[in-house]
Amino acid sequence: MKLGTLDWGIGGLGVHQRLLALGVADDALYLSDAGFTPYGKLEEDALAARVAGCLERLSAADCTHVVVGCNAASTVLSHPRVRHAAATLQDVLGVISPTLDAVLAAPPAEVLVLGGARTVASSLYARPLEAAGVRVRQRVAQPLSALIEAGVLEGPALDACLDAICGPVSDARVVILACTHYPAVADAIARRFPHLERCVDPSVETTRVAHARWGMAHAPTRATTAWTTGDPAASGRTALAAFGVEARFERVP
Known about the structure:
With 253 residues, the protein is of the alpha/beta class. The protein contains twelve helices and ten strands.
């Protein structure tokens, strides 16, 4: 199989590299759409059209299995336009369902969802959790992914952003990092929650589900092709700084 991973930026590299290390794929392609409007800021139909186009591009590049390594993009996987594009692939897996399954396996009394505007507005985390009797609080953390994408992983700007986002909900004990960029600054986030018991990383949960569904193709490998619609040099620098991934990004339209 050939693995394709889609994200707006470099956040999806977390799940992408975990799957490569497990030997899930014979070949792999990472697609960062950083040259486009941040997915968390798009309306549903516009986002669905963009995600569908990216899935078609991955299919045309011979990918057979795709991880949508972006929470915002995962909110539109049931959209007809996206489902039509996904039909050209053997399997498409988003990050929301695996994360929900992990949390609902042992539901806490309360959960805080930190995510982009699109993810929070969709309530795709909140509704199933509330249906299971979990009290849900949500905070839009949209500026955080932009900082991480720009390589701001520490310092006054990051601290100010995290303080503003986390301060009003600092009593949270269980936090879902509902953006795959956020694990790059997980330690800084955790420091804002003195009573934190669990920090849920969708990349980890999605890796578990993908590995169970797709098995192992051959020996582990870290080799991958990386495309970006944004700045290749900037993407490469941030990938290394945020996730320790050495990736040579190629610019694509």
